[in-house]
Here is the input.
Amino acid sequence: MFRPKVPTMPQPTGLVTPPAVIQHTPQAPAPAPVVTPAPVPARPTVQLTPGAVIALVGSGTAVVLVVGAVLVSMLLAVAITAASVAVCALVVRSLLASEGKRR
Here is the structure.
């Protein structure tokens, strides 16, 4: 009663096409590709001098410090907001409790 009945289809309905016949055709081998040497780069490679390395390290350190300061300030803002909401909730609860005791 609760089992689904799967319809059976002994023969397909609609248009039935016969299977396609695949014939093998011989192919000639492909010619070997011509290998050309890689072109020489037109501009020279970048070489870092000691001054450039110091500048890169300094700028990387500055970026890390700035991003860290921004993240810490965002975390501090969230913490201050949460503390102020908690204080407001305590004040409202106290006001509601004291009003209930007066009557």
